[in-house]
Each structure stands twice: as C-alpha cells, then as structure tokens.
Amino acid sequence: MQKSALKQIVGIAPLPEKVMDRIELVRNADANHILGQMASANTSDVSDRLHDIFRNALLRAGHDHIMLQFEINRLEHALSGTGIEPVVLKGGAYVARGKKAAGGRRVSDLDILVAEDELEEVETRLKEAGWSPDEATDNEYDQAYYREHMHELPPLRHAKRGTIIDVHHRLLPKTARSNVDVALMQQSAMRIAENPVRTFDDVDMFVHSAVHVFADGAIDTPARSLVELYLLYIELSSDDALRLKTRAKAVGAIKAVSTALWAIDEFFDEDNALALSNEALAEKPNFILRWAIATKTLERPSAPLAKLLLYIRSHYLRMPLRLLVPHLARKAVAWRPTTKKPIELPFP
Amino acid sequence: MSAPSNVASYDRRDLRAALRNGSFTLHLGPFSHLVSGASEPLLDFLSDTYRDYSVELTPSDVTDVLLRLEAPNILRRFIRRQITPNPGFKVPAVPLPLSMSPLAFEMGLNLSVALKCCRFINVHAGVVADKDGAIVMSAASGGGKSTLTAALLQHGYRLFSDEFALLGLDQPLLHPYPRPISLKQETIPVVRDMVGDNWISKVVTGTPKGDIAYYRARASDLAQDKTSAKAKLVLFPKFEKGVRPIARQLNPAEAIMRLVPASTNYSLLGEPAFHAITGLLKNIRAYEITYGSTIDSLRLVEQITDQKLV
Amino acid sequence: MAAAPPTTSEKWSSDSHQYLAVEYDDTFLVYFRPSGETHFLNFLSYGMVHAVSSGPLSEEEILARMRTDFSLTAEELPETLVATTLSELDQAGLITALDAGT
User: Fold this and answer.
1) C30 to chain B, closest Cα gap in Å
2) Distance between CA atoms of B189 and B13, rounded to whole angstroms?
C-alpha cells in the first residue's frame, strides 16, 4: 500500500485519477477492512460505480451497527437490577456515541469492561440470558489461559443470535509489564442517555485505542487501527487534545499515546499530533518500533519480518517470559503447522 | 480505453494479455467484474460459452467484483498446475487442476456476487421472465431447477439467472444477471437433448461435484440484461422420480420463510429487505410443485399461469 | 430462559413504532427495528405484542385479553402457553418488562 493510501481512505487526499490505481486502492481498503470508513469519508467526486461499491460497504456496516445497538440493549436487559454499569469499549462505544470512527466501521463483537469483583455476577447473568463459552475457546487450556493470564473472560457467544461478547476487567492482561490504571478511567466513564451502560469520554477513548494498538496488540490490523486513531484524534476538541498528555500520564499510558500521536503525524501529516507527541515524550518511539509499524502498515516486502517482530513484541508486552514460551509454542502448533519451534529472536 | 464489445470480437491473444494483466472486465446486468489469471482452458471456455458477453480489455471504472484466479502456491504454478479462485476474502475453495479453470472462474464469480454484492437481496433461485413478469424458482440442489429453467427458455421466457434472484432494495423488482446455466451430471444429457449440442460447453469431468457443463446464455437474453421485471409467480420446484404432478399453493408468509434462508444477505439488509421481500410477494401467488418429468413440470407451470391464478 | 424471573407485579409493554407487521391470513411477518430481525409470529404471539402496545398489561391481563379477543377457552389457551410465549417474545426483545414501581 502507498503511504498516500491512508490519506485517500480518510478523505484528506484526492482519490487516484487512474482507474487501475483506484481499483488497487479499493482492493486495499477492502482487504484491510476499511472500505466502509473510506465510503463514509469520500462522499463527493464519486462515480456511480464507486458509489455502488461504497454502498455495499455501508450496508454491511449499517447492519453491524444495528446488531451492536441491540446487543447493548440485551446486555442491559441481562444485567437489569444488578446495579452494574459496564463500560462499552472500542467499536461499540464509537457506534453508541455516534463518533466519526464509527462511520462505515464493521463491528463484530461487543467488548465491555467491568470491575474485577463484578466479573462473576456478569458471567452468571450473561449465561442465564443465553450466552455460553464460544466453541473455539471452549477447551480447558484456553479457558484457563484466558482466566489466569488475559484481561477478559473467554468470549461468550449467544446461543440464538450467534453474537459474541468479550467481558474485560482490565485493559491489558494481568501479566503485562506495564498496566494502565483502569479504575481511574472507569471513574470518569459516562452513561449513554439514562441507561446504565457507559462509555469512556473522548480523551479516554483515544487513550484506550492507543493502548489497544500500541501497548497490547501485535498491530494485526495496522491500517484499520491507524484510521481509527486518526478519526478519534480529529474529533478531539482543542482542550481535549491538550488534556491528552496529562491524562495519559495519570493513567500510565504515556508511551502508547505518544506512539499513537507520532503515527498520526507520520501517516496523516497532522503536525499538531507530532508536537503533542514530542512534548509528551523526550524522544520519538524507538527506531525498530517505528520501522516495524511503517513496514507492516504499508505492506512492504519485509512485512513478514516486521509482523514477527510485532507479534513477539506484543507477547513481550503482554506477559513475562515464563509464560511467553509455552503460549507461543502452543499457538505455533495450533496455527502454523510449518513452524517447528517457538521463535527465538531478540526482543525489540 | 475501448468501449465494451463482445468476447467473440477480440483476438484470443488480446484476451490472454488482458487476463494476464488483470484488466479483463466483464459487464453483466448490474455488476462489473475484473478478472485476472490467464489459462488456455479458461480462454477456450470464454471464447465459447461467453462469446456474446460484453467485455472491456481495460476497465473504464472501478468494478464490483475483483476475482483473481491463481495457483494455490508457487509450485503449482509449474508442476501439475492448479488453480483456485481468490475473490479477495477467505473462501473454502479447493484447488482445482488447471483444466478446471472454467469451474474456478464460475465459482469465483458466484462467491463474489453471493457474499460481496449487497445492493440487492440475493436469493439462491432461478429466474425467467416473459412480458407478464418473472417466475422465481427456489429449489434445493437436485430439485430440477436448472432443467425447468432451461425448459422455460424454450417456451417464450428469457433468462434472468439460474443461480441468483437479484431483488432490488428500493423497488421490489428482479434484475437480470444471465450467467451461463450450470448443469450437473444427469441433467447434462437432458438439457442437451432439449436445446441442441451447439449450446452446451465442453463437459468438465471429475470435478468435486461430478461432471459439469454450461448452457450458454442467448444473445437476446444478454441484450436485455438491464431490463428489470416485476415477479408474477414464486415456485418451489421438487423433482421426484415417478411422482404424480401436483401443485400446492403456499401462504405468502410460508414462501417468504423459505426464500429468506435461501438468501445470502437478507438478514444483513434489515428494513429495506423486509419491504422488498413483502413487496415481491404482494398480489402474487406461490406454489410448491412436485413432478417426475420435465413435461409434467412445464404443464404445471402452464396450468398455474393459464388459469390466471397469478 | 429470561434473564430476570418475572415477578407478579411485572407488566409488559411494546412500542408499535419499533416494529412493522404484514399479515398473511393468520400469520404475521414482523420486522423488529432494534434487532433488525424478521420474525414469523402466529396470531396469538402477534396478538400479545399488539395488545401491550397500547398500554402495559400484566400476564394475567394479557391472558384474559387473549381469551376474549380470540374466543378461546381456558383449556384451549392455558396460562402456561401465555407464559412461555411471553418469555420468548421477551427474549426476542419484542416486548419489555416494566416493574410496577417504575
């Protein structure tokens, strides 16, 4: 993917003139699951045929959004009377709040955050209301792995609707090297209308997205993640943008937030974001990390190496070494039959 | 950029080059399809079965479908060559020997339209139409739908599609998408006898679905591929050997209950889909017809339409 | 299984703006806007959704209303059938339980 592609997708650079280039851009946006975002952002200067293709993507996203709102409704129903006020995270929150980041975005699962001591009751209530452990993870190893080391219950699937809910009680795994002060973030979450379900405020939404991308994930969907960060960023008021640094420091997410701001400047030429990033951090994110993010996002030929690096980094960030080896080994067996042993590379 | 022209008007060499460059663009009904992956069996198939279809060698705009026919791995590009359709999303496609390229092409287009194009409600059903309107035929595999479709084409109907009923979201009209009719196993000789050898493609033998051949769409049907129609009848045909022909009228709700699971995207499309499917069944009737021969099935359709039951 | 076991004080309601219904003989095709799902309801299920759309009713009131509206005897329409149907409609989101207090 060309570096300009991300800007074209979010509508801040004109679409390519040449038909074959346009086709390639659409193909890329689709493969990276951001065709809907592209459709939302590019509403003018669109041929009938491109409009048709955009419409396909928007119809799909529209379905996801209805589904998601209904899942929130069912969640409230299942928890009614408990006094529990879960925080809806990520896509669910963007849809519920009508954020720009929701426009055309596909959403498949509902992610929610509750306090650790509410976990048991939430699980019981959800199971009573028809959710049960998803088949894919309904085995002893995965169940134990999720409960002991991750930051969520194993995914629950609704028997009738087939939808998945992920219940988190932290934003990063228990075993992660760094962790964010989730309690502090939960305190300032706000209700959606008069319902008990809440979302983070705009600043914390950005902070969480940054944490999710840069402190947690293997950046498996780099283009999609960067577009999301960009869309959240441009919707921040100037006061909110100034508040980012103090907030990130307070909740312990300064590295992730600075990296996110650096990336927003790098890929979308948002000078203000770079200034904020520079101010927050004395130095840029380290060279290897920057290289890996750029390489993977732009799908350069060295992308497989960058992916490996990021994958290892994500596991390094998530858990101490003691756990890293057995889990990677297991995934290696389950997912990549060609990999003979756990990867041994120096950690970035 | 050249204006679209039919496949037969191009040089095989130019077609090959366009497929190799990934610039081969097929226009049909509401969709355009960009295809890459040249092979001699595919070129043979296109110059025969697709001779009257409208094609551009360089796309004039973005396309609905992006289909790559490619080797499953580098080795299979050279040794015991194989091919697999890649519509841009994960599909459970089995690699096929290169000689089955036509099948990979047809499968790839079907998957793309079924799973990617949601500007229409896609129902897995055959559709033919005459001046009074369209007949939608939804049947399980082996229900004799293709044979009945082929038979109706010999009796004054034009082809919309044998696989996809495309129902508009804004207005409950059916849109033609006249791809070749896929014939399996024992239906091949039946349809060959009915329409003549000249209309049937070379048989692809030993596919995962047995023998497969394609009944070419007529130029007259292709010429009307932009002319939509209102439905006049919904049929659920059932072929059963030796059975006495019988037609049973269905409650429209039951007909809808059967059409919805045959749709790849009804549940995705929400309220407009609800309006469209109830609009489709408005003031028309639905029947389940059971028969043991093509003649019986034609007679049943004739009785239902002639008695002005529709 | 409903999430919260019904209490005696519970009343049911529905919002007629949230669904579209087309009648075919005694069957109703119902599109429910909040879930985006199409449901097929028989006259009784639809009758119950419709009955509580003009004002909340308790299970007992619904039972009585259905018996009168469709001229059904206690044998033809037992309490258990109404209870089961209400629970299914509740699960689909078509009706909502309101506490008498709220």
Assistant:
1) 9
2) 33
CB atoms C20 and B274 under 8 Å: yes
Give chain B positions within 8 Å (CB) of A22. Answer: 62
CB spacing of A20 vs B23 below 8 angstroms: yes
Specify the domain boundaries for CATH 3.90.228.20 within chain B: 120-179+217-306
What's the ipTM? 0.90
Q: A with B: how many residue pairs have Cβ under 8 Å apart?
A: 51
Decide if A23 and B32 are in contact by the 8 Å CB cutoff. Answer: no
Helix, strand or coil, per DSSP, at residue A132: strand
From chain A, the residues in CB contact with B269 under 8 A are: 59, 63
CB-CB under 8 Å, B271 with C33 = yes
d(CA A310, CA C81): 57
CATH of the domain at A329: 3.30.460.40
Domain boundaries, chain C: 12-98
How do the pLDDT tens digits run along chain A, 348 residues long? 777 899 999 999 999 999 999 999 999 999 999 999 999 999 987 899 999 999 999 999 999 999 999 999 999 999 999 999 999 999 999 999 999 999 999 998 999 999 989 999 999 999 999 999 877 777 777 777 766 666 678 899 999 888 999 999 888 776 666 678 999 999 999 999 888 999 999 999 999 999 988 876 557 788 999 999 999 999 999 899 989 989 999 999 988 898 899 889 989 988 777 777 777 665 566 666 676 777 777 776 666 666 665 665 555 555 444 444 444 444 433 333 333 333 222 222
Q: Please provide the CATH number assigned to the domain covering B120-179+217-306.
A: 3.90.228.20
CATH of domain C12-98: 3.90.930.60
pTM, rounded to two decimals: 0.86
For residue C3, give the nearest of A67, A70, A77 by CB distance: A77
C1 Cβ under 8 Å from any chain B Cβ: no
Q: Show the domain range for A96.
A: 3-335
- Contact assessment for residue B116 and residue B157, using Cβ atoms and an 8 Å cutoff: no
Number of domains in chain A: 1
